[in-house]
Design a protein that fits this description.
Elements: E1 2-5, E2 12-16, E3 19-26, E4 34-38, E5 41-47, E6 54-59, E7 62-69, E8 75-80, E9 86-93, E10 100-105, E11 110-116, E12 126-131, H1 140-162
Antiparallel strand pairs: 1-2, 1-12, 2-3, 3-4, 4-5, 5-6, 6-7, 7-8, 8-9, 9-10, 10-11, 11-12
């Protein structure tokens, strides 16, 4: 599986082989609001505040969680399953020179890796998804949508902090 950038404004596709599972589309170049259709559901991700330090996750207009940046420099994805159980995932950058994110569940078990295949000078980011022991608590494609968004948000936050 892959996450492939489809425009310089941040849009990306979730691919399984050559099949496009879904495409996450940002409202415009400056917006942090993104939407996609997945399995007959509309997923919407939108900032809760102007600083984009917290974003809300919506599925068919129902709030199903959020993404926040914690003090350890990690993205925390909180998702509420249809049976109302809460699942937490941590996305963290684990490399120095080559961009690589690892996603862990609340029990600190590695779920998968997002390994960047783009060059540092490109404006677009492509990731290979390397599955580990994925626990299936959340639908994989949906979690990849949230992790792709969180990875882009992480880069934005880190870039802004460097200025």
């Amino acid at each position: 599986m892959k996450l492939v950038s489809s425009s310089s404004k941040g849009d990306f596709k979730v691919l399984e082989g050559t099949r496009v599972v879904c495409e996450v589309v940002y409202k415009n170049w400056f917006s942090s609001k993104a939407t996609t259709s997945l399995n007959q559901a509309v997923l919407e991700i939108q900032p809760k505040n102007i600083w984009t330090s917290k974003v809300d996750l919506f599925k068919n207009d129902h709030n199903v969680g959020d993404i926040t940046f914690n003090l350890k420099g990690q993205m925390v994805i909180r998702y509420i399953n249809p049976d109302r159980t809460e699942v937490n995932y941590i996305l963290k950058n684990t490399s120095g020179l080559k961009l690589k994110f690892e996603v862990f569940n609340a029990e600190k078990a590695l779920q998968f890796k997002l390994v960047c295949t783009s060059k540092w000078h490109q404006l677009r980011y492509h990731y290979d998804v390397e599955l580990a022991e994925f626990d299936g608590q959340t639908e994989l494609h949906e979690l990849l949508v949230y992790c792709g968004y969180a990875a882009k948000l992480y880069l934005s936050i880190i870039s802004a902090a460097a200025l």
